[in-house]
Design brief:
232 residues, alpha+beta, three-stranded antiparallel sheet, 11 strands
């Protein structure tokens, strides 16, 4: 077996494993650093922000939270080029009246904000945050919306395996196990091939035609011939 054959045979299998155990649950998601993002383009009618949030939790995620300028720019760029989102995207935040501050639904810390200049209402109860896709700034608005033109969701990596189907987990396991077995068998075959090559062992297939003499005829060298054989 040539030296390059074994790696070439394993490359497709390794690629399949990589695709099967990818960080994000499917190609519909987009990865950025340690998170996966998906924009659910379906327009839905809602009665509260919890209806919007349920769209994300049904996919094993939560509404979007943003923690730095780089992440904000990534979301803005992806919304424009790939997702084709609306002008305003509902952020996964709520106003906590207990300590008079905004908090993320996914319980992550509010370490970054990008509010546009606007006067706050005296009462911020039922106030939500929106990402304005034309400017990248956030603005405050009423949570009591009747519909949304898409929902932006985010899930941390590693993606929670409980949201994957049993069939997906079974297929992933079988692919990984098969790849390991094939790799081990390939290594054994390669070892045997190299050992035989180093020992000078060769296999020769004879092309000499079968003798037409009778099987009972015996050729004795340096002694009396029982059969007369002519040599050129």
């Amino acid at each position: 077996m040539p030296r390059a054959v074994l790696p070439k045979l394993l490359l497709p299998l390794l690629g399949l494993v990589a695709a099967t155990v990818a960080d994000c649950p499917s190609s519909a998601w987009v990865q950025f650093k340690d998170s996966c993002y998906i924009f659910l383009e379906e327009a839905i009618k809602v009665e509260s922000i919890e209806d919007v949030r349920n769209q994300c939790t049904d996919h094993g995620a939560d509404m979007i939270s943003i923690h730095n300028e780089e992440e904000n720019a990534f979301i803005l760029n992806t919304l424009k080029k790939q997702w084709k989102g609306p002008d305003d995207i509902l952020l996964g935040m709520f106003y906590d009246t207990d300590d008079a501050s905004f908090k993320w639904f996914d319980s992550s810390n509010m370490t970054f904000d990008k509010w546009e200049d606007q006067e706050d209402a005296e009462d911020l109860v039922d106030t939500c945050g929106f990402l304005h896709t034309k400017t990248g700034e956030w603005k405050k608005g009423n949570c009591e919306v009747s519909s949304v033109e898409g929902t932006l969701c985010k899930a941390a990596i590693p993606y929670n395996k409980k949201y994957l189907s049993d069939n997906h987990i079974l297929i992933s396991t079988l692919v990984i196990a098969s790849t390991v077995i094939l790799t081990v068998l390939g290594a054994i075959i390669w070892y045997l091939y190299k050992r035989n090559s180093n020992s000078g062992f060769t296999t020769v297939f004879s092309t000499t035609p079968q003798s037409h003499y009778d099987d009972d005829c015996v050729l004795v060298v340096a002694e009396e011939n029982e059969c007369t054989v002519g040599f050129d």
